[in-house]
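Hello,

Our lab assistant flagged a job as stuck in the queue for most of the afternoon. It eventually completed. Since we weren't sure the result was trustworthy after the delay, we are filing this so someone can double-check. Below is the sequence as submitted and the structure that was eventually returned. Let us know if re-running is recommended.
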Amino acid sequence: MDVTIDAMTPEEYVQQKAAASGSSFYYAFMFLPKPSRAAITAFYAFCREIDDVVDEAMDPGVAATKLAWWQTEVAHSYAGNPSHPVMKALAACAGGFGIEQRHLQAVIEGCRMDLEQTRYLDFQALERYCHLVAGVVGEVSARIFGQTQPQTTDFAHRLGLAFQLTNIIRDVGEDAMRGRIYLPVNELQQFEVKAHEILNRKYSDRFVALMKFQAGRAQRFYDEALALLPAADRRSQKPGLMMTSIYRTLLTEIERDNFQVLHQRVSLTPLRKLWLAWKVQALGRI
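-- returned structure --
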């Protein structure tokens, strides 16, 4: 039976939004205390709403208008007047977990970049995009999980970057169908891979070499992130470690499959994701 938005509470709405995404993040939420779970679910639902604007809109002008609406909605919400169920749910917990307006506006700005550019000249340019759509998400998540040490923010930023690079590697084929290539232009040139080869989803030894380079960098960022996590926050940041286990396993699967990502979206089964998350929860290690 269909349930309209009006029939749902804000909390029910964000729960449904988060669960429907099928994202790996959902498995890390399951082990959180109720207040933290409510906060991360609301924040994740917000991220999904913004991401969906870009992914689902056929007209970039319409998407830009919707993102502008969200910018205004966020500002109104922090002035005490939320209207969307997601912002109502977030408003109930933002103060208690240090979720600031600048965080939400950064996520919107990152998604706006998807409307304005489909290529990145070098990794420095790509890294700025990754910071907005993933590093900031990591920063907010760390706060919700119970961060106590300032250095944990650096861990969260670096981990978010590693996650986003893994997503980029996984989604090369899907992004190509939308006319987007997130792999830096100068690195395509370095490995002599032409943009039209990716857009037409053609494999080659050069493409595999390029992807090995991308995967190696992502793996280094995972290692750097884990080295930045203070021991005092290791327990509170278990959800981030669960995500690390799931995402690194996915990246390893893609590497093992020799980067067959142009014609398919490689994924882990829900049961495997749950198992990886439970191992971190139960054993405390990746």
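-- support follow-up --
The delay was a queue issue, not a problem with the job. The result is valid. The mean pLDDT is 92. The radius of gyration is 19 Å.
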